[in-house]
Amino acid sequence: MSREGRASGLRPDQIQLLLPLGTAVSLSLAGDSTLYAVLSNQAEVVGISLAAVGVLLGANRLIRIPGNPLAGVLNDRLGRRRLFLLGLFLGMLSTLAYGWAYGFWPMLAARLLWGTAWALINVGGYTMVLDRSTAADRGRMTGFYQTSYMLGLSLSPIIGGALTDALGFRPAVRICALITGVGLVIALLFLPETRQQEAGPPAGGGSRRSRLTAKAVLHNLRGMDRQVWAVAFLYLVIFLVSNGVLMSTISLYLAQRWGTSISLGSLVVGVSSVAGAMLSMRAALGVVAGPLAGSVSDRLRDRWPVAAVALLITLAGFVLLTQRVSVLLAFAAVMLVASGAGALIAVLAALVGDRVGGDRPGVAMGALATAGDIGSAMGPLLGYALAVRMDLRWVYLLCAVILVFGLVIALRQTQARRGSVIR
């Protein structure tokens, strides 16, 4: 097999990785995605205030800000598979905890446990993708991995929302824990280790390499390419506005506009179910957008124009949400955001892979994941802090302004790299 890989299609070893990896990642999101769909409407059941909802939805990401770089260093030093399996196990435990926790502090502990779990799952998953990809197929690999993530986001909210409406919150999240457990079993049986063993001892001696101090983590982060940090900033922006603000406030947005139920012709549907459906369709479009954008960026051999188009599509969705629109147009706006965000996330991950190659991929993906988690953690806090003072349309306008800055960065990179090719 040539170093460049195949220009069309995925290799058998890539498919053998993506199938168990993607399935496990998708199933691991069941509990977390359900919370986003229903927690604002189940606050009394859980014993928390509405103001605490934003804190809890963002708390898991706060712990991942230091956790992702550490997970990246661990992946580079200890391998990928066992850390990924540990993450799945912790994810199952955290979802079980949602089923019995009552009050702010027990729920906070469960959310912090999930944050630790997802750091191991997500950083490990992306690192394994970089292990098995080349510049010729990295866009497709990251796109298909993104498909798995989006499948989890598309199925989990609608299933969790429907289960909550039918059975109640606590039985619903216990079923979600079982779903995550299925993913753990699949990964345990079929997921390969992708880390290549080093031929000799690391520079500086093995004893130093085994030390995981804060100084060592910061040293690895300072060594990252400057363009990786530019990509990480855009990653922060897209997660702030999409996975942060929009995902956490969509249920509240619907309630502000239409109350506890929404009439769709002769059918009256609860807000939890409509929010779950919107989040599911949002993620379902990401399933298509990620691989498509990744494939296009592979063929163009320049990913920045694709990133710019993705940002423009996301911007259009938020501009539409600033208007007093019908339910159908609100749905269309969420779909625009979904398409743009799904495409951009896949392309940005491929850009990082292009820059680092096989040099500390875990550290690079840890830095990227940290940027996304900073944005995602800020999103619910910002959204709910402003929502108690103003209409959510103004919050979405702020998101649109932030996206304009991101679009300027992507366009400048496109101009600077015009005529160049992916190395």
Walk me through the topology:
Layout: H1 12-28, H2 30-38, H3 43-46, H4 50-78, H5 81-98, H6 104-131, H7 138-167, H8 169-190, H9 206-209, H10 214-222, H11 226-258, E1 261-264, E2 267-270, H12 271-300, H13 304-321, H14 327-356, H15 361-387, H16 392-416
Helix pairs in contact: 1-6, 1-7, 1-8, 2-7, 2-8, 4-6, 4-15, 5-6, 5-8, 6-7, 6-15, 7-8, 7-12, 7-14, 11-12, 11-14, 11-15, 11-16, 12-14, 13-14, 13-16, 14-15
What does this structure look like?
This protein is mostly helical and 423 residues long. The protein has helices at residues 12-28, 30-38, 43-46, 50-78, 81-98, 104-131, 138-167, 169-190, 206-209, 214-222, 226-258, 271-300, 304-321, 327-356, 361-387, 392-416; strands at residues 261-264, 267-270. β1 and β2 (267-270) form a beta hairpin.
